[in-house]
Amino acid sequence: MAADAPSPPRSPWWTPSVHADRRPFLLARNAITRAVRNRFEAEGFIEVESAALQVSPGNEAHLHAFTTTMLSLTGEPDQTFHLHTSPEFACKKLLAAGEARIFDFARVWRNRERGPLHHPEFVMLEWYRAGAPYETLMDDCADLLALAAETAQTRSFQFRGLACDPFAAPERLSVAEAFSRHAGVDLLASLSADGQTDRDALAASAKAVGIRIADDDTWADVFSRIIVEKVEPKLGQGRATILCEYPTAEAALARPKPGDPRVAERFELYACGVELANAFGELTDPAEQRRRFVAEMDEKQRLYGERYPIDEDFLAALEIMPEASGCALGFDRLVMLAAGASRVDQVMWVPVA
Asked: What is the dihedral of CA 199, 225, 246, 129, to 10 degrees?
């Protein structure tokens, strides 16, 4: 999802009148945090804490990290680290170590992101189930929506004129179905039987429904534009939407769907047009994972002139990691919707200045 435009200047968050307006949202955040923690612990999950400094912050082309340098005892530059954009690599190492059900209220950082729905530092609630199909995570997401709403004592999520019933069973919609229904585009026509992409086929379909395409746009660029312009605004209206079966080319950390390598076991959760969560049936093939990471970093180099290192320990851990499913949920966004706030920084006790 693209970052929002900068918000207009506002009084500092610590201004007493501003804090008084924010305080009900913050107390709701605390209550929802307790309820979620209790829910996971009641199901036998272990809470873990991932280190923020990592060798690699993640290997997706459009994710941008904050970078720092560790100094030696003599003050000389010793090693480059990045603030992680997700605790995913660390959590999967814990799965490899033998943990079966874990969750992490992880503080994470992403550069080039700030606006009503984005903040450079935020909380990512991630959880993993070893041996569970990724459909189980769909049920988890539905439960968390209802739990947050019940805790905040609301019957409806509302945002930018859209409403969503957090207690209703989410709609499950494949990406191909969403493209057909909301954009009039046949997505699968641009995918070969083995999941390879046809840029020209997708671009022609996009142009036919009025989407502007540049000559140097890749298949991924066109896919993203259709999602943002035609699909996302229609999701999560009335009830939440689980958008599933992403093209394998758009699911770098997910395993292919059995029987159909064109698409992968990835879904995203939407409410009121807001993306809340991203989940995978986890890829555990280290050779395939390396290939995907290299491709993502090649694209990052092409677009932004930089690349992040690959975490070799992570790839080694995949060798022994069990089959698992995992989900990353933007906790601040969930609280924002449940508490009735209009920006994520309203539900953060101390936003970035």
From this structure: 140
